[in-house]
Amino acid sequence: KALSAIAEKNPDNGYGAMASFLKMQQEYQEASRYDPQTSSPSLRFALVNIAKELSTITNRYNATAAAAMSANLLSSIESKEMGMETEKVNIPDMPFLSKVSYRNLQKIYYRIIQLTDEDFTRQNFADSSWEKITRRPSLRTISQELPDPGDKRLHSVEIKIDALSAGQYAI
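Predicted structure:
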């Protein structure tokens, strides 16, 4: 409440700007503890409201420390994130599932590239090895729509990967 009072009494200066940012930072920390199983449903979209307030602070108090900190936190909330996990061994010629974890995405694109035995002898897939592998033609190029509830939170889904013949692949 003290931060709200400072922000209200100083709407046009750096003190008010910093109080507004600190209040949003505090709300962000609380919203980050959201658990869909145990938290109040009203907290699910808290990050959306926090992002709007941070945008307002950034625009209203341009060229202040509070604006810069607000922009950084806003960037963190709105950043896009994606990870994919697939079993190391799947049954040949049978479709399989892959878990996709994502945030702030509505669609992903991925490629399936066949690997050779030689690929596994290289320095545990160092960046230079991946660069070489990803230059190869892909067996398939796929786009996949993802459910996006618009809450700026991390989600995960399982997607179907069509059957692949026996071999080693990078997705």
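Summary: Strands lie at 81-86, 96-103, 107-115, 140-145, 155-161, 168-170.
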